[in-house]
Amino acid sequence: MDPIFGLQLRVDRQGQEPLRVQLQRQLSHAIFEGRLKAGTLLPPSRQLAALLGVSRNTVMQVYEQLASEGLLLSKPGSGTEVRDLALPASQEPGRPDAGRWLKGLWHDLTLFAPPERALPYDFALGAADLSLFPFDHWRRCQVRALRQFETQGLDMDWAGYPPLRALIASFVSQSRAVSCNPGQVLVCSGAQQGFSLIGSALIEPGKTLVAMESPGYPMARRAFLAAGARVVEVPVDAEGLMVDALPGGVDLVYVTPSHQFPTTVAMSASRRLALLQQARARDFLIIEDDYDAEFQLGGQPIDALQTLDKDGRVLYVGTFSKCMFGDLRLGFVIVPDWLVQPLVLARQAADLHSPLVAQAALAEFIRQGALRRHVRAMGKQYRAKHQEVCQALAGCPWLVPVPLLAGVHMALLADEALDLEALVIRARALGVNVSHSGPFGLAAGTRPRHLLLGLGPIALEDIAPAMARLNAAVAEQIKA
Amino acid sequence: MDPIFGLQLRVDRQGQEPLRVQLQRQLSHAIFEGRLKAGTLLPPSRQLAALLGVSRNTVMQVYEQLASEGLLLSKPGSGTEVRDLALPASQEPGRPDAGRWLKGLWHDLTLFAPPERALPYDFALGAADLSLFPFDHWRRCQVRALRQFETQGLDMDWAGYPPLRALIASFVSQSRAVSCNPGQVLVCSGAQQGFSLIGSALIEPGKTLVAMESPGYPMARRAFLAAGARVVEVPVDAEGLMVDALPGGVDLVYVTPSHQFPTTVAMSASRRLALLQQARARDFLIIEDDYDAEFQLGGQPIDALQTLDKDGRVLYVGTFSKCMFGDLRLGFVIVPDWLVQPLVLARQAADLHSPLVAQAALAEFIRQGALRRHVRAMGKQYRAKHQEVCQALAGCPWLVPVPLLAGVHMALLADEALDLEALVIRARALGVNVSHSGPFGLAAGTRPRHLLLGLGPIALEDIAPAMARLNAAVAEQIKA
């Protein structure tokens, strides 16, 4: 019997796929799976067509297609036969060994879990307050940008949509006294990508030494580790990074001078100057993460560290995650001219560029003054929330707010008598989501001393009841 | 004279900034710039207030603020003085030396320039045809997703918006016969990020050896170089990557089996099997870049290489840049289970995640069948364009289209007599933007033999006149 008859070829006239496609798939599977052996002569197209009740043309197309894929061989004069594909002998699958493949770094890290299930009172870190965000306005900007993309196109620039770069330069010069021209601004998908691109451009794996604040922001640390950096931790006190404790041979220093993460202290003026002086004397660069300093809580915030830098040693990283919302995934870095093109190259290698439509929508939002209005409104909102927390703690000697100049989260310095790990667990059981500074790096053998309250998700009117529960948890622990 | 009078402090009642902010900025600048020296005693607040014509309260607030920033020292009983900031002695700025800082890689690379100024007839590579894209439908999906984000929030998953992961798994199983479950799908910002994350997870700088097609896709190469890979080039012939030419010790092999970039050949079935066999025998992994194979040009396209892989050695990279549009910046990788979490970790370190709003909009677009309809319509459109080019070349023995099973660009194999570099220049002068394969890697001493025509930007009705000009340029060169 012709081996083709053993295949039980079937075509379904009611099927969604054309008959040709049905036939071709069955034949190619039979060849790949070894059911049609190499050298097998296929029936002439006319014969197979008659057998299946399809047109001869259909069969001829399938044969041609399979020949073009290298599955069949058309031999002039002798018909069409199955090619020798050198199919592997049946054997156990040879799965790769994950242990051999993964770089060491990825064995050691754990995933930052998605936000916990919502608790009634949520002081989660890192999220912005969206209750006042002008979504309607933003939607109009987005729709308009998409229409412009559709009808006229949007100007492409790998470093960012040109009008947005100019608007960012002007926005940060006004809100943060950062001095730059638009050519120094590189749009990226959030501060995290800023760290990662700087790492890609500057970090030599296994060589470059990066100093980080301790406690400090773990995701920046990961970006530098992923680029192959050696990381050293430098303690933070009430004036910010302890500059005198920087080790020798440091290449890059990462700081959050406006609102240290997580302790919230603002770096003192003398420390700022010392850091810049050291950068010059010891030839290192500074990465300034200015993640939420647009929100002023009292007086004038300390200007950005970049403002004081006359040498071009500060690489400034900003984000729209706090002053807009995190899901926007847009941020920027402001760097000296010599670093712009390398960062653009690193960006191309990483993921090409940020969506022009989103960039154009943001440009429109800024141009119309909506960002400035929103930042002003949110500054007021965060001030009110901050005040509410402070009032609730007025009678509590166990948790003392760290003085705050700017930012979206507070740190409460805890009395030695308090066990913050237990307190956080108890508070969560009472429906209040708070954090402590433990996971953000500590000297060995010490216990976390900062309780952390993000002011984003929680509603203003929920703060009093939330703090009442937190105070109750504190009282319980003190009594026990 | 009290040194403060030398400062020429001024407040402007008509100014936009509050008087307090104006005064504070002037004082802090004077301190930072050394015009107010350490130890200088400031006038009592009442006196300065009278001098400037502001309220005493304003001056007191400014003093307090500057004290909190570490610029002033309030000495009980003796007034307020300027702190010793240990200002650096005036000196030349100490700019960093770019040469010392930049990693070698970024010295050698050049920027991929933004698309050239538009020519009347544009066969640019890499861009999708947007003329038939259902922008209105897409806009509705986007607006709906944004509203959902605003009112209910969207489910966060670092690996991607969960409904989108499931829809992608089902879409690729139908359109590309890729077999996977949603848990193996990682949403990323385009194929480029897919390469870069795989590199970040698997490439040991200076050790890992990556084999790439030559000629091949330069941006994938850059992603692997940026991760520190050693890259080796393996030639491509009419059956795709020459598997027998893979060198020893190779760890990763990057291929474009459905539609080789840039030569457009589909990898033959026997080569596919040989590659999978070698991967098992020599323990390497395969990165399959399946960038535009949704568009079928004739017959059934060859299934993805991943379809044949029983070992979990193929890492499949897909993108929505071609079947939607590039500015969407969404793509995906499909990998064996053991690699999912490391890639998510690498993604967190790189830029956290893709916007949920965009992911939810895309999920809606797919769920409503709009993507499938668009892919079908575009397949027809690209087939028509392909045919139009072939017809125009029917009488031309100098440029022969490479047979094409799928994809958005064509390669024309040029006769030895043609100088493609000169031809491309001449064609552009005639208003026709075409490319040749030269920039994509060649054996030393050889000349490019492929003329490349992207079928995205050009309108169907423009192809005949464009090809007439191209043919004229060919005729000129042959005659000369």
From TrEMBL, chains A, B:
Keyword tags: DNA-binding, Pyridoxal phosphate, Transcription, Transcription regulation
Pfam families per the UniProt record, alphabetical: Aminotran_1_2 (PF00155), GntR (PF00392)
One Gene Ontology molecular-function label: DNA-binding transcription factor activity
InterPro entries: Aminotransferase_I/II_large (IPR004839), HTH_trans_reg/aminotransferase (IPR051446), PyrdxlP-dep_Trfase (IPR015424), PyrdxlP-dep_Trfase_major (IPR015421), Tscrpt_reg_HTH_GntR (IPR000524), WH-like_DNA-bd_sf (IPR036388), WH_DNA-bd_sf (IPR036390)
Domain HTH gntR-type residue range list: 17-85
Family in the record: In the C-terminal section; belongs to the class-I pyridoxal-phosphate-dependent aminotransferase family.
PANTHER family: HTH-TYPE TRANSCRIPTIONAL REGULATORY PROTEIN GABR
Protein name: GntR family transcriptional regulator
Organism of provenance: Gallaecimonas xiamenensis 3-C-1
